[in-house]
Structure formats: C-alpha cells, structure tokens
Amino acid sequence: MTQYMSQNGDPQTCIEACLKCYEVCTRTLAAGLEINEDQDFITALQLCAQACQLSAQALLLDSDFHVKTCNLCADFCEEVADLCEDFEETEMRHCAEVCLRCAKLCRQMAGHAVSRQPLQSDVRLV
User: Fold this and answer.
1) φ, ψ (nearest 5 deg) of residue 113
2) CA atoms of 10 and 6, how far apart (whole Å)
3) What does the alpha-carbon distance between residue 35 and residue 2 come to, in Å, rounded to a whole number?
4) How is domain 2-114 classified at the architecture level of CATH?
5) Which of 9, 55, 62, 91 has the most CB atoms in a 10 Å sphere around its CB?
6) Contact of 26 with 50, CB cutoff 8 Å
7) Are residues 54 and 125 in contact, defined by beta-carbon separation less than 8 angstroms?
8) Whole-model pTM?
C-alpha cells in the first residue's frame, strides 16, 4: 500500500477531479456524437472516461497502482483536451478545461507517492 504526501498531492481532490472528468467526458460523448462522428474522437472520450474512473478507484483503494493509473489518466485527459479545444461549442471547451485540471492533479499524485514504512507486524524475523 501507499501513503500519500499531503503537502504534494491531495488524494481526495484528485479523486473528485477524476470523477468529474469521467462525468464530463461521458456527457461530452453524447454531445460529441451530434457534433463530430469521428471514431477516433469518440474512442478517445470513451477511454478517457474509463481511465478517470479507474484512477479514482485506484486512489480510493489506496492501491500502489495509482501511480500507473494516474499517469494513464493524465495521458488520456491531455489528448482529449487537445481534441476538444478544436471545437467552438461550450460543451467541448468545458470538457477540455476539466480534462486539463484532472491531468494536472493526476500528474501530481503520480509523482508524489512514497512507500509506507513497514509496520512492526510486517517485519518477518528469520
């Protein structure tokens, strides 16, 4: 398991950002189908939403995998933000903003994890 360094990243804030991004990407997907039928765009939104959900879950479970899931989530969020910024529609611009915030917080969480110190009960004597 992992302990988080509170001065460098707040897991709760990151979880909330991931869940918000999941929601916004899912809603944008519905709006995006009317605006842009490009399969790559649709796939990027779907994968971003799933990566956000996975990252939030890893953080909620205090999993060591949160570093990987947060980096993956940030990658998808940055890609979707780039795609959404090309549109003039308010929904797309909002999605880009939410994705960029999520990416920033995920990068912080991924870069500031520290291993916890073993508890006395974790130490095995030979």
Assistant:
1) -90, 145
2) 6
3) 42
4) Up-down Bundle (1.20)
5) 55
6) no
7) no
8) 0.80
DSSP the chain: -EEE-TTT--HHHHHHHHHHHHHHHHHHHHHHHHH---HHHHHHHHHHHHHHHHHHHHHHTT-TTHHHHHHHHHHHHHHHHHHHTT--SHHHHHHHHHHHHHHHHHHHHHHSEEEPPPPGGG----
User: What's the CA gap between 8 and 83, in Å, rounded?
Assistant: 29
For 17, the token pair is 């950002």
Show Cβ contacts of residue 26 under 8 Å, excluding neighbours closer than 6 positions. 45, 49
What are the tens digits of pLDDT across the range 40-65? Answer: 999 999 999 999 999 999 999 999 89
